[in-house]
């Protein structure tokens, strides 16, 4: 199982690296053409937008994998230690259910827009909308792994450290 997740991690990281490098290259080329050569790449903004959408959904998967995703854990931190685990598991279960719904509806939207062509690149808009179900599939896989680990007690959850004013003052950051 570890090998499978190691391979999945490498695929996700490679996809993000390629997407970010491509987006940076397209934006840089478009800026160069616009301000130095005095013309604009007709497809540059559209391609950059497509890559940004993909980067967002793939990045969400990394956030879930590393447990750095945005969470409403204020209540859980106020509870006694014995009540934290059930609240955390409930939160993860809600995330799994919502992500499953997003995959379902994202796939429906992708299929609906498959014949709608983007003007500059003349590719299907499904290419953009496909980022949602594929990125959320990665999110779901990591969310299920997190839930199973927390449920079985295999891995102690990482507590997010929130910098308070007192801590910041102690570290002379303010």
Topology readout:
Layout: H1 2-35, H2 44-65, H3 74-78, H4 81-112, H5 126-129, H6 131-152, H7 165-170
Number of domains: 1
> SSE string, helix = H, strand = E?
HHHHHHH
Query: Number of DSSP helices?
Result: 7
**If you compute it from the alpha carbons, what radius of gyration comes out, rounded to the nearest whole angstrom?**
21 Å
Strand content of the residues, in percent?
under 5%
Assign a percent range to the helix content: over 70%
Largest sheet features: none
Uncertain segments of ≥5 residues (pLDDT<50)? 159-165
Q: What is the 3D shape?
A: elongated
Alpha-carbon distance between the termini? 45 Å
Supply the helix-strand structural class. mainly alpha
Number of strands: 0
Mean pLDDT: 87
Describe this protein's structure.
By secondary structure, this protein is mostly helical. The chain has one domain. The protein is built from 7 helices and no strands. The N and C termini lie far apart (45 Å).
In brief:
By secondary structure, the protein is mainly α.
Please supply descriptive tags for the structure shown above.
single chain, 7 helices
